[in-house]
Design goal:
Length: 419
């Protein structure tokens, strides 16, 4: 049983080339990626395929969530001068046999009604301004089944309050408003919400608010598992989806792939993958500037860097990239090439690749490489070699293979760029 449902391309992430560029060798066309170096001598992969899955991929998820956090933080810093930021929590009752998709749909339905009611009533009470919002959808699984829940931010205009109103009074007002509205709208759907399971409070600062809705939990889990550390559980009897995946990976590595608890966790992961497909993990009201792109102040240096592409020292066949990523060897090869002078970068890439089992026939010198003679190679044998290595990693199991990519994800987040 595959972990990724049909139509999901998570397995191809960071192991295939995009853009359709090829070079010929051995009478065949081979898709390739570029290995480029910045002016500071930092290596990066250019032209690699990304699945861009925020829910399932340990490579793309942390990258996208970090970018979203930067956008949310920038918007909160701008809005906090004129608005109070109220952190809210929303959930609904659920049971162990209830499908995630059903629970999630009902939760988002209640949220939509609550936000519409709050915005409508505040517009009626105040002539100027309105409540803006940002919401994030999160999941855990425990004895009571899947537990989707909402972490949200309400941006309330400061102009609605006199200067002598204390933050505690504002927090108490919005706690009462949020809990009352949430329980009432949930009751319309036949859901009896325990008021102790929801709440609201003022955010201490924009950073705390951004962390609340755009937590880097996926980044943390990926980093800890990649480094062989224990991940912190969401609760005593509950697990996050990536903790479930981590348990599957550990059983695969221990030869317990067909254990009953492993089959159960695989079914849970597939249910999670299907339920979250095409669902937004984080969104906000239309009046906020939440374009999900990295916002940065442009300087003359950064504009010049955007105009001038990075020098490409090598082309690597996509089969070779897949082998380096799946085996966790990408950092080893890059570190070796970054430690040598410019005129030895290409040769070092090739030799470092050979040291970890990658045949040199899968490399081609790039435009920036210094001319170096290499012996002619049997390309067919090299391709067969790479494919056999890739198949060997595939046989380890989907989860173990996926978590091998975490090392590449952590490596790329530590200042590397893979585009």
């Amino acid at each position: 049983m595959r972990l990724a449902p049909e139509g999901h391309n998570t397995r191809k992430c960071l192991t295939a080339a995009s853009g359709g560029r090829v070079f010929q060798a051995g009478g065949e066309d081979h898709a390739f990626v570029d290995i480029a170096f910045s002016h500071d001598g930092e290596a990066s992969v250019e032209g690699a395929l990304h699945c861009d899955s925020t829910w399932q991929c340990p490579v793309c998820g942390p990258r996208i969530w970090q970018r979203q956090r930067e956008v949310v933080l920038g918007e909160l810093r701008r809005m906090s001068k004129t608005h109070f930021v109220v952190m809210v929590l929303g959930t609904i009752p659920h049971h162990s046999r209830q499908p995630l998709e059903e629970t999630q749909e009902r939760l988002l339905g209640v949220l939509s009604k609550v936000l519409a009611d709050i915005r409508r009533k505040t517009r009626k009470d105040h002539d100027e301004g309105s409540v803006s919002y940002i919401r994030a959808l999160e999941h855990t699984h425990g004895r009571a089944g899947w537990h989707p829940h909402i972490h949200g931010l309400l941006l309330v205009p400061r102009a609605w309050y006199d200067e002598d109103v204390t933050p505690d009074a504002i927090a108490a007002e919005w706690r009462l408003r949020w809990c009352t509205t949430w329980t009432a709208k949930a009751a319309l759907d036949g859901l009896a919400v325990d008021a102790r399971a929801i709440g609201a409070d003022l955010a201490a600062d924009p950073d705390a608010a951004a962390e609340y809705v755009a937590k880097a939990e996926l980044d943390t889990a990926a980093s800890e598992i990649a480094l062989g550390q224990d991940t912190k559980r969401a609760g005593e009897q509950s697990r996050t989806p990536f903790e479930i995946l981590g348990d599957i990976a550990r059983r695969d590595a221990a030869g317990q792939r067909f254990a009953p608890e492993n089959n159960r966790d695989i079914r849970l992961w597939r249910e999670y993958a299907l339920a979250t497909h095409k669902v937004r993990r984080i969104s906000g009201s239309q009046d906020l500037d939440l374009a999900w792109r990295k916002k940065r102040e442009k300087t003359e240096d950064s504009e010049a860097e955007e105009r001038a592409p990075l020098p490409v020292f090598a082309h690597l066949a996509s089969r070779g990239l897949g082998y380096l990523v799946r085996g966790g060897h990408l950092a080893t090869v890059f570190d070796a090439a970054e430690a040598v002078p410019v005129d030895r970068r290409y040769r070092t890439l090739v030799e470092a690749g050979e040291a970890v089992g990658l045949r040199r026939e899968l490399w081609r010198p790039g435009p920036a490489a210094h001319p170096t003679d290499y012996p002619t190679c049997d390309w067919a044998a090299a391709v067969d070699h790479a494919e056999s290595l890739a198949c060997a990693y595939d046989r380890e199991g989907d989860a173990e293979w996926l978590w091998r990519q975490v090392r590449a994800a952590v490596f790329c987040q530590a200042g590397r760029r893979v585009r």
